[in-house]
Amino acid sequence: MSGGRQKSEMALTGSVLRFARASMHDGRGLRTVLFLKGCPLQCPWCSTPESRPFEPQRGYVQDLCTLCGNCVDACRVQALARAADEKDEKTVTFDPEKCQRCFGCAASCPQNAIKKYGHTLTVAEAVEQICQDEIFYFHSGGGLTISGGEPFCQAGFTANILRETKKHGIHTAVESCMHVPFSQIEMALPWLDHLYADLKQMDSRLHLLWLGENNGLILENIKKVNASCFPLVITIRLPLIPGFNDSDQNLRESAQFCAGLTNIREIEVLPYHRLGSDTYRHLGLDYQCLDLTAPSEKYLQERATFMRKFSGPLPVKTGSGLI
Fold first, then answer.
1. Which residues are CB-neighbours of 166 under 8 A, at least 6 positions away?
2. Where are the domains of the chain?
3. Looking at per-residue confidence, does 2 or 117 come out higher?
4. How far is CA 261 from CA 63, 227, 234, 264, 311, in A?
């Protein structure tokens, strides 16, 4: 690679949500997780709704607000104003039609009640932050996991980060919904050690109804990655959502689909949870899964054990271990 081209690729920018450090749930060992913004699906249970759009978003945590008025004074277009809510309690109102997304309000808030979800980083800046934790990766066998949002929606940014990270000998992983053109996934494969691919629902009609897209592209992409020449580890993840994908039929078909692929290491069944539900309120959005109950450990194990009957040589994993 020429020096000019490498310099250009290191300067490539991406839309980043945040870094999470010392994670133990996104791959082996201690990991730094880089959350990117932008996702093609609309999962109603999503634990990071602030990662769905590519552009930065404004959030408001009313419980932290002291009504100091700094944000109102900082807003040049009068998108913010002091007011009273329906309970006659003082608050700060927000007019999104007036807002120019300058985020001067967030910068002026001493209580961090106004959030800016998302910012821009270059590849070089991201890699610098990732490499700060190198000593923890090598002692724990950990590394970098890129999550989202959907990392492959920012294919060039993701691939270049993985490439530069591998130059430091750091283990790499990506968590993906797989609903992107395969060419965007393919860009990252040479530098990817572990792929966590979501498989949420085998019924295309239900997939479209709940998530806004059918599952055809996802299934084809999983098959293509499985058939690729790159020696990456592939884990299929099924987030168990009561009433959506926990039926005998869906679990059986999911397990049989995976059993027919030669390079899948395991199936991992993850429980639905409500982490991130407060963020919907901060964004002014309704959380659509209020009636859902997180599955018990007993039920999770029962459903995973059922899947194991149809998964052939593939182990099925939960938080309690392999089945």
1. 172, 191
2. 3-54+119-322, 58-116
3. 117
4. 49, 8, 10, 6, 10
Q: What are phi and psi of 121, to 5 degrees?
A: -130, 150
CATH architecture for the domain at 58-116: 2-Layer Sandwich (3.30)
Q: Indicate whether 85 pLDDT > 70.
A: no
Count how many Cα atoms sit within 13 Å of the Cα of residue 59 in the half-sphere of its side chain. Answer: 24
| pLDDT at residue 2 greater than cutoff 80 | no
Q: In the predicted model, what is the mean pLDDT of residues 83-109?
A: 87
Predicted confidence (pLDDT) per residue in 12-45, tens digit: 899 999 999 989 888 999 999 999 999 999 999 9
Report, at the CATH architecture level, how domain 3-54+119-322 is classified.
Answer: Alpha-Beta Barrel (3.20)
Give yes or no for residue 117 having a pLDDT over 70: yes
Residue 83: pLDDT band with limits 50, 70, 90: confident
